[in-house]
Amino acid sequence: MKILVSSCLLGEDVRYDGKNSSIAMGSSFTFSAKEIFMDILCTNEVYSFCPEVSAGLGTPREAAEIVSIEKPFKVMTQNNEDVTIPFLVGAKQALDLCNEEEITVALLKSKSPSCSNKMIYDGTFSGNLIEAQGLTARLLSENGITVFNETQLSELKKFIKTA
Ligand code: SF4
Question: What's the CA-to-centroid distance between 84 and ligand 1, angstroms?
């Protein structure tokens, strides 16, 4: 099965801070989570994608949060730069890739203003999380692509088995 995966989860240094969120090498993941992840990687066709880098935002870059979670969306950096357009461009590029390659499932990084499928920071840069999706995860979901995050690897594995 074809799966879109956040590049940072695959170990690519594309995060805003120039680091990655590698599942395979990260100390915050259990051995069992790593095993499931490696099994998914080895038995499926993985498309690595970072919407923010794809849209031209450099690495490292300023941290950004969504300050308006409904249309018209607004994404701002901590220093008050409006980065809404690149975030929307990255989301559209992710959707275009899924449509071109007929990808129907994604494994995306939690808590990211682009990739999160459940919770994001509330736009005040104070560490508070709210229930909302990142712009890429939201656009993919709205277009019928099922999005999981790195805490839902067992669910993703089950989904792949029954697809
Ligand atoms: S935009 Fe997504 S893939 Fe890129 S660094 Fe952030 S969470 Fe990872």
Answer: 15
Cβ burial of 84 (10 Å; 0-12, 13-18, 19+) is middle
Give tens-digit pLDDT for 60-110: 999 999 999 999 999 999 999 999 999 999 999 999 999 999 999 999 999
Closest ligand 1 atom number to CA of residue 14: 5
**Ligand 1 mean position, distance from CA 77 (Å):** 15
Domain segments of the chain as ranges: 2-162
97 and 107 Cβ atoms separated by less than 8 Å: no
Q: Which residues line ligand 1 (CB under 6 A)?
A: 6-8, 14-15, 50-52, 109, 112, 114-115
pLDDT tens-digit series, residues 117-148: 999 999 999 999 999 999 999 999 999 999 99
Residue 49 CA: nearest ligand 1 atom is 3
Q: Widest CA span of the chain, in angstroms?
A: 45
Cα–Cα distance for residue pair 36/43, rounded to 1 Å: 11
Q: Which atom of ligand 1 is nearest to the CA of 21?
A: 8
* SS3 label, residue 47: strand
**Residue 106 carries which DSSP code?**
E
Q: How far apart are CA 39 and CA 16, in angstroms?
A: 28
